[in-house]
């Protein structure tokens, strides 16, 4: 039996679990204790099979589903296996967590939730396996719809319904772009298999049209500027395991699609595509991180952080396209390795953080950072594992985020080798932008972690916060372990990315990297740059240990406990701690033109002072609202045709018929 | 097959044109007719003329499946549907005079313009056709347009349904005239559609009547959402 068949069996298993959920619609215990853990086991199986597929040869299959004479073509190659690996590995952690998370029905009955969840997983797996446009679009839409229903699980809240609608709208704008892109790619042959699209050689103009449509279509799903507005609405609206899956995996299917179209299906690339992706990616990353820094809702903060990370991925892919267009295969492979590394790394740490917010939300019922604080003592597991995620997300060694951002900056340093002098000057500027984004991401994560877990509880009810259940912890541990392992063993991970870059650009960096042994990571040569995470970890741990021992030895016996210095204000409460708003204030000042801000400052004589600040997106007012007004204006105009009289409607048909007949005749 | 000699055959070809003209005249008569009962009689006559024309075309061209078409037409449009319509108007008690939105002479004038248009349109197509009845394509098209016009100008539900059915007659005749009939399966499908359509429309008429105490479709304007 082929690997692909086994993978299909796993996917079918997910579907069976989903439909089993319908049978036990309201039996929360059965769904949570049996179906979700079984789904996690299938996730492990999928990850294992994908790993085998990554190292094996491409396989194809034809699935006799779909329309007559139009079967689904499937193909397992390095790229799809890599993304399957991500889907499988992340789904394990999320499913285990979800098993502990869905305790009581929230809106949608748990059985239905189980169906939507597993349908979502299965459709994502099939999206990356699809080998013709028809199967791809069917799965893509299934993915969009199942995630829409997951987002609107709590559909009795009007804001959640609105968020779901916005998501569906932008998802469909994207789907139209993708559909048109496939239409261009098949070059009038009428054959929509990817094999045929690969065989076509489009003229530069049409290739560019296809590329732009793909960027629009997949960008809408990924959340690039200016199609990012659905992310900060939909992620907070969805239950946490769902936000985790959407942010960690679903956004990545858009990255998969972009890679598939721009590297695999379109043959020759043009250098300006890379520049476009770089520019869009950097703008998105900067925009995302700046907005992320000023959020006060923890899930919104993470959603904006996802936008930032998607921007970084686009930058990596853009650099890959740029190098590839000039025939620099090895450097293109380096940039793509950085991007793909970030795909996995982001998938792990972002799902970890989203799930942690879920635990916090369940424990406290609060999403607003202003009402949290000091949860480290109440929920130590969640707090320590979030710390791993936060450090990985800030791009600090020795976690996964550092490796990918370091590789990305390394590949930027090679842009001086580009044959175009204009690009030589411009691209290093972008590298500075990336560094700024990375620094701001660190700032944001300090805020996220510090305000939720450190300090004193800001509300009295936080004292009742209960720690996460064992299953939730297990899910978090799985994802945290992923962050740590990816950070500590980058050479092994790059070995897994190698088949993908070989497929996409015909080059890889695994051999160069392996030449220095498994301990030392050096993308070009050790003289130029190298990074050894285990040594780093050892030195850091040793230094900390030494410091602790020294402090203990030197101060031994002189330790005394006393009240902390209160700066001369004896009446201190937990509300006086630095708040999320306060922490974000410098960013609000520096990046003021980015925001559309409204502030209400209290007067000094107010007995009950209120401070309120609302921050809105300029794009909402500059782009979305005018488009909405235009659309409703046109709709009103068309509405005048609707007289409500049958005779008038018949007359429309009649006149149309006569006019058409006249046209045919002449 | 021509066992009666050429004279008879030429007479039969002539008779196709005759029936075509009967169809057209009946279409005009339906536009001019105010009484629903008479409308149904006219529709029955139209169906009979159509069945006869199909039978003759089938005989002259030797396409035996047209016999089935003719039989089907007869059963449906001369027997079954008129009976259904009679029952409907009896049950609804709507044998009164039909109101029109335009006055009848104006409608007739528009109808003449439509006939001229249809003939003008059909002339080049008829030239391409090899069918025996190709000269009648213009008439068939005119029947379709006239029935459509009738649907527009009538304000009550039952005449509209009759207009719809008569439009189908025109289409059927056009198919016979241009290409010696559609494939059997298509004809069966259309016949079945018409039958189901008339049943559904019958239900609708009862519902409209329930709702508004009248079959005047102008009441449906109230259903419009603002």
TrEMBL record, chain A:
The NADH:quinone oxidoreductase/Mrp antiporter transmembrane domain, residue ranges: 130-412
UniProt keyword Membrane present: yes
Short name of one Pfam family: Proton_antipo_N
InterPro entries on file: ComplexI-like_HydComp, NADH_UbQ_OxRdtase, ND/Mrp_TM, Proton_antipo_N
Keywords assigned: Cell membrane, Lyase, Membrane, Oxidoreductase, Transmembrane, Transmembrane helix
Biological processes per GO annotation: ATP synthesis coupled electron transport
Domain NADH-Ubiquinone oxidoreductase (complex I) chain 5 N-terminal: 69-107
Entry GO terms, CC: plasma membrane
Membrane topology value: Multi-pass membrane protein
Cellular compartments annotated: Cell membrane; Membrane
One of the record's GO molecular function terms: oxidoreductase activity
The UniProt record lists the keyword Oxidoreductase: yes
TM ranges: 6-25, 34-58, 78-102, 114-130, 165-185, 205-230, 271-294, 301-326, 338-361, 381-402, 422-455, 476-497, 531-551, 646-664
Stored PANTHER family: FORMATE HYDROGENLYASE SUBUNIT 3-RELATED, HYDROGENASE-4 COMPONENT F
NCBIfam families noted in UniProt: PRK06521.1
Protein name as annotated: Formate hydrogenlyase subunit 3/Multisubunit Na+/H+ antiporter, MnhD subunit
Organism: Aromatoleum tolulyticum
UniProtKB/TrEMBL annotation, chain B:
InterPro entries: HyfE-like (IPR038730)
Stretches that traverse the bilayer: 12-32, 39-60, 66-89, 101-126, 132-153, 160-178, 184-206
Keywords per UniProt: Cell membrane, Membrane, Transmembrane, Transmembrane helix
Record GO cellular component, one term: plasma membrane
Location(s), subcellular: Cell membrane
Membrane topology field: Multi-pass membrane protein
Protein name, UniProt field: Hydrogenase-4 component E
Species, as recorded: Aromatoleum tolulyticum
């Amino acid at each position: 039996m082929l690997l692909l068949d086994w993978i299909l069996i796993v996917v079918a298993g997910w579907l069976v679990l989903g439909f089993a959920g319908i049978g036990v619609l309201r039996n929360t215990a059965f769904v949570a204790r049996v179906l979700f853990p079984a789904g996690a086991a299938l996730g492990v199986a999928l990850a294992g099979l994908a790993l085998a597929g990554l190292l094996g040869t491409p396989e194809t299959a034809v699935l006799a589903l779909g329309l007559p004479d139009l079967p689904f073509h499937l193909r397992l190659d390095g790229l799809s296996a890599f993304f399957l690996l991500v889907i499988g590995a992340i789904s394990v952690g999320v499913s285990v967590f979800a098993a502990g998370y869905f305790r009581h029905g929230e809106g949608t009955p748990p059985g239905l939730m189980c169906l939507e969840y597993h349908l979502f997983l299965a459709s994502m797996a099939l999206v990356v396996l699809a080998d013709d446009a028809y199967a791809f679009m069917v799965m893509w839409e299934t993915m969009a719809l199942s995630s829409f229903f997951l987002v609107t699980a709590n559909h009795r809240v009007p804001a959640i319904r609105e968020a779901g609608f916005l998501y569906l709208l932008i998802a469909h704008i994207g789907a139209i772009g993708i559909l048109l892109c496939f239409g261009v790619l098949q070059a009038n042959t009428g054959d929509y298999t990817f094999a045929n699209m690969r065989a076509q050689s489009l003229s530069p103009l049409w290739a560019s049209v296809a590329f732009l449509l793909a960027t629009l279509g997949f960008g809408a799903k990924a959340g690039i500027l200016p199609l990012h507005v659905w992310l900060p609405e939909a992620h907070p609206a969805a239950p946490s395991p769902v936000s985790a899956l959407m942010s960690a995996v679903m956004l990545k299917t858009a990255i998969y699609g972009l890679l598939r179209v721009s590297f695999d299906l379109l043959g020759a690339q043009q250098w300006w595509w890379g520049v476009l992706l770089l520019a869009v990616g950097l703008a998105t990353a900067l925009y995302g991180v700046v907005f992320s820094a000023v959020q006060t809702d923890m899930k919104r903060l993470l959603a904006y952080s996802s936008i930032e990370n998607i921007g970084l991925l686009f930058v990596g892919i853009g650099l890959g396209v740029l190098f590839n267009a000039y025939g620099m295969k090895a450097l293109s492979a380096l940039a793509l390795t950085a991007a793909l590394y970030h795909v996995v790394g982001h998938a792990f740490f972002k799902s970890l953080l989203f799930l942690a917010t879920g635990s916090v939300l369940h424990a406290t019922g609060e999403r607003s950072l202003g009402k949290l604080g000091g949860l480290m003592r109440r929920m130590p597991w969640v707090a320590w594992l979030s710390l791993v995620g936060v450090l990985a997300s800030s791009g600090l060694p020795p976690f996964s985020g550092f490796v990918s951002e370091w590789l990305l900056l390394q590949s930027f340093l090679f842009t001086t080798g580009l044959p175009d002098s204009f690009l030589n000057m411009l691209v290093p500027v972008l590298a500075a932008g990336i560094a700024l984004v990375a620094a701001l991401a660190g700032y944001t994560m300090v805020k996220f972690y510090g305000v939720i877990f450190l300090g004193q509880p800001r509300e009295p009810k936080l004292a009742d916060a209960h720690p996460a259940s064992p299953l939730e912890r297990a899910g978090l541990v799985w994802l945290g372990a992923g962050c740590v392992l990816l950070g500590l063993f980058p050479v092994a991970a790059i070995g897994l990315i190698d088949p993908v870059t070989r497929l996409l650009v015909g080059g890889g960096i695994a051999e160069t990297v392996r030449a220095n042994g498994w301990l030392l990571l050096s993308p070009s040569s050790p003289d130029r740059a190298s990074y050894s995470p285990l040594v780093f970890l050892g030195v850091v741990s040793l230094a900390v240990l030494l410091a602790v021992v020294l402090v203990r030895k030197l101060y031994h016996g002189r330790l005394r406990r006393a009240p902390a210095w209160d700066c001369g204000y004896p009446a201190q409460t937990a509300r006086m701690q630095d708040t999320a708003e306060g922490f974000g204030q410098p960013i609000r000042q520096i990046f003021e033109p980015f925001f559309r801000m409204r502030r209400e400052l209290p007067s000094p004589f107010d007995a009950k002072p209120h401070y309120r600040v609302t921050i809105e997106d300029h794009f909402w007012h500059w782009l979305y609202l005018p488009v909405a007004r235009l659309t409703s204006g046109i709709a009103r105009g068309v509405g005048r045709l609707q007289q409500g009289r049958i005779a008038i409607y018949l007359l429309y048909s009649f006149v149309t018929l006569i006019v058409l007949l006249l046209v045919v005749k002449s | 097959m021509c066992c009666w000699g050429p004279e008879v055959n030429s007479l039969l070809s002539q008779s196709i044109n005759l029936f075509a003209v009967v169809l057209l005249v009946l279409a005009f008569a339906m536009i001019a007719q105010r009484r629903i009962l008479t409308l149904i009689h006219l529709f029955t006559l139209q169906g009979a003329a159509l069945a006869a024309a199909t039978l003759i075309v089938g005989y002259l061209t030797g396409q035996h499946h047209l016999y089935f078409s003719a039989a089907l037409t007869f059963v449906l449009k001369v027997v079954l549907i008129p009976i259904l319509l009679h029952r409907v108007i009896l049950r609804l008690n709507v044998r009164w005079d039909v109101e029109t939105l335009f006055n009848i002479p104006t409608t007739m004038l528009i109808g003449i313009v439509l006939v001229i248009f249809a003939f003008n349109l059909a002339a080049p197509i008829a030239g391409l056709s090899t069918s025996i009845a190709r000269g009648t394509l213009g008439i068939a098209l005119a029947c379709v347009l006239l029935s459509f016009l009738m649907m527009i100008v009538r304000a009550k539900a039952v005449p509209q349904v009759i207009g719809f059915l008569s439009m189908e007659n025109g289409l059927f005749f056009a198919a016979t005239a241009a290409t010696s009939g559609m494939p059997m399966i298509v004809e069966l499908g259309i016949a079945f559609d018409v039958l189901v359509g008339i049943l559904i429309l019958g239900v609708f008429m009862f519902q409209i009547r329930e709702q508004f105490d009248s079959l005047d479709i102008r009441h449906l304007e109230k259903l419009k959402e603002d």
